[in-house]
Amino acid sequence: MAGMVPFSDREQALRRAWPFGALDDFFAPLAAFDSSDAFKMNVEDKGDSYEVTAELPGVKKDEVEVELSEGRLSISVDKKESDEDKSKDWLQKETSEWKATRGVYLKDAADEGLTAKLADGVLTVGVPKLAEAKSNVTKVTVE
User: Fold this and answer.
1) 8, 60, 108, 124: which sits with the fewest CB atoms below 10 Å from its CB?
2) Domain edges within the chain
3) pTM value?
4) Are 52 and 128 in contact (CB under 8 A)?
5) How many Cα atoms within 13 Å fall on the side-chain side of residue 2?
6) Which fold has domain 7-81+97-128?
7) How many Cβ atoms from other residues are within 10 Å of residue 48's Cβ?
8) 10-17 and 21-31 are packed helices; what angle lies between their axes, rounded to 10 degrees?
Protein backbone atom coordinates (compact mmCIF):
# COMPACT_ATOMS: atom_id res chain seq x y z
CA MET A 1 0.00 0.00 0.00
CA ALA A 2 2.96 2.35 0.46
CA GLY A 3 3.40 2.54 -3.32
CA MET A 4 -0.15 3.72 -3.94
CA VAL A 5 -0.59 7.00 -5.80
CA PRO A 6 -3.97 8.70 -5.37
CA PHE A 7 -5.71 9.38 -8.67
CA SER A 8 -5.65 13.13 -7.99
CA ASP A 9 -1.84 12.99 -7.73
CA ARG A 10 -1.39 10.89 -10.88
CA GLU A 11 -0.29 13.84 -13.03
CA GLN A 12 2.35 14.83 -10.51
CA ALA A 13 3.62 11.25 -10.31
CA LEU A 14 3.85 11.04 -14.10
CA ARG A 15 5.73 14.34 -14.21
CA ARG A 16 8.35 12.86 -11.84
CA ALA A 17 8.98 10.09 -14.37
CA TRP A 18 9.61 12.68 -17.09
CA PRO A 19 13.33 13.44 -17.57
CA PHE A 20 12.78 17.07 -16.65
CA GLY A 21 11.25 16.26 -13.26
CA ALA A 22 14.46 17.36 -11.54
CA LEU A 23 14.19 20.71 -13.31
CA ASP A 24 10.63 21.10 -12.01
CA ASP A 25 11.90 20.32 -8.51
CA PHE A 26 14.58 23.01 -8.87
CA PHE A 27 12.02 25.72 -9.66
CA ALA A 28 9.37 24.50 -7.18
CA PRO A 29 10.46 26.91 -4.38
CA LEU A 30 9.79 29.84 -6.72
CA ALA A 31 6.23 28.61 -7.22
CA ALA A 32 5.66 28.95 -3.46
CA PHE A 33 5.65 32.73 -3.92
CA ASP A 34 2.72 32.59 -6.35
CA SER A 35 -0.12 34.70 -4.95
CA SER A 36 -2.70 32.24 -6.29
CA ASP A 37 -1.70 29.88 -3.45
CA ALA A 38 -2.70 32.48 -0.86
CA PHE A 39 -6.29 33.11 0.16
CA LYS A 40 -8.55 35.27 -1.99
CA MET A 41 -9.18 38.82 -0.83
CA ASN A 42 -11.58 41.51 -2.11
CA VAL A 43 -11.70 45.22 -1.24
CA GLU A 44 -14.86 47.26 -1.77
CA ASP A 45 -15.17 51.05 -1.43
CA LYS A 46 -18.47 51.72 0.35
CA GLY A 47 -18.21 55.53 0.29
CA ASP A 48 -17.49 56.32 3.95
CA SER A 49 -15.69 53.02 4.60
CA TYR A 50 -13.95 50.06 3.02
CA GLU A 51 -15.11 46.46 3.28
CA VAL A 52 -12.39 43.85 2.94
CA THR A 53 -13.39 40.19 2.61
CA ALA A 54 -11.07 37.20 2.68
CA GLU A 55 -12.01 33.60 1.93
CA LEU A 56 -10.67 31.46 4.77
CA PRO A 57 -12.46 28.09 4.75
CA GLY A 58 -11.61 25.87 7.71
CA VAL A 59 -9.75 28.62 9.56
CA LYS A 60 -10.63 29.43 13.17
CA LYS A 61 -10.71 33.00 14.46
CA ASP A 62 -7.76 32.42 16.80
CA GLU A 63 -5.66 31.55 13.70
CA VAL A 64 -6.31 34.97 12.08
CA GLU A 65 -4.60 38.28 12.81
CA VAL A 66 -5.81 41.60 11.36
CA GLU A 67 -3.61 44.67 11.66
CA LEU A 68 -3.71 48.26 10.34
CA SER A 69 -0.45 50.16 10.33
CA GLU A 70 0.00 53.51 8.58
CA GLY A 71 -2.77 52.74 6.09
CA ARG A 72 -1.67 49.18 5.33
CA LEU A 73 -4.23 46.56 6.28
CA SER A 74 -2.64 43.11 6.76
CA ILE A 75 -4.48 39.84 7.20
CA SER A 76 -2.31 36.97 8.42
CA VAL A 77 -3.35 33.34 8.82
CA ASP A 78 -1.44 30.66 10.71
CA LYS A 79 -3.45 27.45 10.17
CA LYS A 80 -2.39 24.76 12.62
CA GLU A 81 -3.16 21.06 12.64
CA SER A 82 -4.92 19.84 15.78
CA ASP A 83 -3.32 17.21 18.01
CA GLU A 84 -6.27 14.93 17.27
CA ASP A 85 -5.41 14.95 13.55
CA LYS A 86 -1.75 14.15 14.27
CA SER A 87 -2.65 10.99 16.22
CA LYS A 88 -4.53 9.37 13.33
CA ASP A 89 -2.92 6.94 10.89
CA TRP A 90 -3.54 8.69 7.56
CA LEU A 91 -3.20 6.91 4.20
CA GLN A 92 -3.70 10.21 2.39
CA LYS A 93 -4.13 13.66 3.88
CA GLU A 94 -4.65 16.72 1.71
CA THR A 95 -5.03 19.27 4.48
CA SER A 96 -1.99 20.73 6.13
CA GLU A 97 -0.57 23.48 8.24
CA TRP A 98 0.05 26.70 6.35
CA LYS A 99 0.77 30.39 6.78
CA ALA A 100 -0.18 33.27 4.51
CA THR A 101 -0.33 37.05 4.68
CA ARG A 102 -2.12 39.42 2.34
CA GLY A 103 -2.25 43.17 2.56
CA VAL A 104 -3.70 46.23 0.92
CA TYR A 105 -2.89 49.93 1.23
CA LEU A 106 -5.87 52.13 2.14
CA LYS A 107 -4.56 55.70 2.09
CA ASP A 108 -7.47 57.27 3.99
CA ALA A 109 -8.16 54.51 6.52
CA ALA A 110 -9.05 55.58 10.05
CA ASP A 111 -7.16 54.02 12.96
CA GLU A 112 -10.29 53.67 15.09
CA GLY A 113 -13.61 51.92 14.59
CA LEU A 114 -12.35 48.89 12.69
CA THR A 115 -14.47 45.73 12.83
CA ALA A 116 -13.67 42.13 11.94
CA LYS A 117 -15.98 39.12 11.80
CA LEU A 118 -15.27 35.54 10.72
CA ALA A 119 -18.38 33.61 9.70
CA ASP A 120 -18.89 30.66 7.33
CA GLY A 121 -15.26 30.73 6.17
CA VAL A 122 -15.32 34.42 5.19
CA LEU A 123 -13.51 37.14 7.14
CA THR A 124 -15.14 40.56 6.77
CA VAL A 125 -13.18 43.61 7.91
CA GLY A 126 -14.82 47.05 8.06
CA VAL A 127 -12.42 49.97 7.83
CA PRO A 128 -13.87 53.46 8.26
CA LYS A 129 -12.38 56.29 6.22
CA LEU A 130 -10.97 59.44 7.77
CA ALA A 131 -13.56 62.23 7.82
CA GLU A 132 -10.96 64.67 6.55
CA ALA A 133 -8.25 63.10 4.44
CA LYS A 134 -4.79 64.19 5.50
CA SER A 135 -2.59 65.36 2.68
CA ASN A 136 1.02 64.27 2.97
CA VAL A 137 1.93 66.15 -0.21
CA THR A 138 3.62 69.52 0.00
CA LYS A 139 3.86 71.54 -3.20
CA VAL A 140 7.01 73.56 -3.65
CA THR A 141 7.07 76.54 -5.99
CA VAL A 142 9.97 76.47 -8.37
CA GLU A 143 11.67 79.88 -8.76
Assistant:
1) 8
2) 7-81+97-128
3) 0.65
4) no
5) 0
6) Immunoglobulin-like (2.60.40)
7) 10
8) 130
